[in-house]
Amino acid sequence: MRIKAPVALVAGLSVILAATPVLAHHSFAAQFDRNKPATLTGPVTKVEWINPHARFFMDAKDANGKVVSWEIELTSTAGLLRRGWTRNSLKIGETVTVNGSLAKDGSNVANATTVTLSDGKRVFAGSSGGEGNTQ
Amino acid sequence: MKTLIKALGAFAILGVIVPFTSAQWPAFATRGVPRTPTGQPDLTAPTPRTMDGKPDLAGIWDNGRNTNIPRGGATGGAGGARGARGADFNTAPSPAASAAANPGPPNATFFNVGAGFSEGLPLQPWAAELVKKRSADNSKDNPDAHCLPMGFMQFHTHSQPRKIIQTRDVILIIYEANSGLRQIFTDGRPLPGKDAEPWWYGYSVGKWEGDTLVVETTGFIDNIWLDVRGNPLTSAGKVTERFRRTNYGNLEIEITIDDPKAYTKPWTVKVNQRAYPDTELIEFICEDRDATHYVGAQ
Fold first, then answer.
1. Are B6 and A26 an interchain contact pair (Cβ–Cβ within 8 Å)?
2. Do A8 and B90 touch (CB under 8 A)?
3. Contact A81 B24 (CB under 8 A)
4. pLDDT tens by residue, B207-264
5. How many residue pairs from chains A and B have C-beta atoms closer than 8 A?
6. Cα distances (Å, whole numbers) of residue B142 to A25, A28, A48, B35, B237
7. What average pLDDT does range A119-133 have in this prediction?
C-alpha cells in the first residue's frame, strides 16, 4: 500500500495527538468535529487565561478575504503551564497559525491542537480532542 | 508497513513541535525524596512510613500524563508511538491483553471506568439506558463540564495530579482538577447512618489492614457520573477503596463499587498512580463563563 508523504505525516500527527492525552473537561465530541480540520492564520486579538479552558481570539481571513474573528480553545491553564506556557506566551498582535478542529455548529470557534508562533515554533495546545472522547 | 510509516510520521512531528521553555514556577525540590546518584527521584526506594509505622501515602500522585506510568496491558510493547510514551490516559487495552499483562482488576479510564470489562459493566436496565442516552448526548450534562464536582472515579482517573496529606486521624486528598477535596477519617469513627446528608464525595472512613488503607464511602448524592461516559453512582452506592503504596514511587488503588440500584452486582477496578515529586499542585478555579461553550452539540 502506497501512502503519500503528507498522509503519512498526518497519520503520524494523529498518533502523536492520540498519545498526548488531554485535559478534557467538557466533551470534545459535544462541540468539535475532529473530521473538520481547522487551519487558521492571523493576529491574536485577545487572550483569556481561564479554566477549565484557556482561550484566545484571533482574526483570520476567510475564502473571500474578509477578516473574521475566531475563538480558539486551548486546554486548562494548569495543562498549559506544565507544557511551559504562561499567560504571556501569546502576544496581542502576534501572527500565529492554529491547527485543530472546527466547531460542529459552524460557529467561528476552533479547538487547537497546535499553535505555530511567529518565530516558527510549533507548540502543543493540549487539545481536548484526544481519542476516547468519541464515545 | 503502515505502523512503520506512522512511527516515522510521529518522529517527524516530534521534530517540529517543541515545548515552551519558559519557567513555570520557582523550581523547588521536594524534601525527603530518595534520589538516585544522578539526583533523580528513586521511585523504587522502599515505601516511606509514618512515625507510627503505617505506610505514608503523602505526596503528589499522577496517573500517567506527567510521569508516563505503565498501565499494565496498555504498554504491552506493541503500542507503537503510544506504547513508547507509556501511559495512555484515554483508552484501556483490550480486556484480554490487559488480563495477560496486568493481573488483578482491570484499569479504569477517565472516559470509561468499565473499559476493561469485556462484557461491560453490570448495569441495571435503567442505568444502561441512561448511559446510552448520555453517550448519544455527547456527555453534555457531565457535571464536570459545568464546573461542578467530578464523579468519584473521575478524581482518581483524571490526568491532573492529586496530593495526599496524611495525619494520624484524617487523610486529605486534594485533587487539582476542579479543586476537589476529600476527607478520609481514620480515627475509628463509623460511617454515618442512612439519614446522613448526601454529599457529592460522600463520607469516607478508613482503617489500616496491614499495609493497606481500606476506605469505605457512603452517603452520595443521587446523580454522580463515574466517568465521561456517564456510568452512574447513586445514593445507594458504597465505594470501597484499597490504597497500597508498594514502594516509594507507586500507589495502587483498587476500587469496588457496590451500588445495587445502578448495578446488578459489585465490580472492581484498579487505578495505578505514580509519585510526582518536585512539582506542586496548580490552582484550578473553574469558570463557567458561557454555558453554550459546553453544550454546543446539536
1. no
2. no
3. yes
4. 999 999 999 999 999 989 999 999 999 999 999 999 999 999 999 999 999 999 999 9
5. 182
6. 9, 12, 23, 41, 19
7. 65
Taking phi first (over 0 means left), then psi (-120 to 50 degrees means alpha), and beta for anything else, what does residue B24 get? alpha
B91 touches chain A (CB under 8 A): yes
> Are the CB atoms for B205 and B186 separated by under 8 Å?
yes
Cross-chain residue pair A3–B282, CB shorter than 8 Å: no
Asked whether the beta carbons of B253 and B151 are under 8 A apart, the reply is no
- Is A112 in CB contact (< 8 Å) with chain B? no
> If phi over 0 gives left and psi between -120 and 50 gives alpha, with beta otherwise, what is residue B138?
left
Contacts 24+ apart (CB under 8 A), A110-119: A110/A32, A110/A38, A110/A40, A110/A70, A110/A71, A110/A72, A110/A73, A111/A28, A111/A31, A111/A32, A111/A38, A111/A72, A111/A73, A112/A72, A112/A73, A112/A74, A113/A17, A114/B17, A115/A72, A115/A74, A115/A90, A118/A94
Instruction: Grade residue B97 by pLDDT with cuts at 50, 70 and 90.
Output: low
Q: Please tell me if residue B298 touches chain A, with a CB cutoff of 8 Å.
A: yes
In sequence order, the 6+-apart residues with CB closer than 8 A to the CB of B189 are: B205
The rounded distance, in Å, linking the Cα atoms of B105 and A89 is 43
Residue A85, chain B, CB below 8 Å: the answer is yes
- Please indicate whether residue A135 or residue A61 has the higher confidence score (pLDDT): A61
pLDDT above 60 for B46: yes
pLDDT digits (tens, 9 = 90+) for A18-51: 333 333 455 677 788 889 999 999 999 999 999 9
| Burial class of residue B59 in the structure, from the number of CB atoms within 10 Å of its CB (0-12 exposed, 13-18 middle, 19+ buried) | buried
Give how far Cα B74 sits from Cα of A54, A86, B121, B228, B252, Å.
30, 32, 20, 20, 16
Per-residue pLDDT at B60 exceeds 60: yes
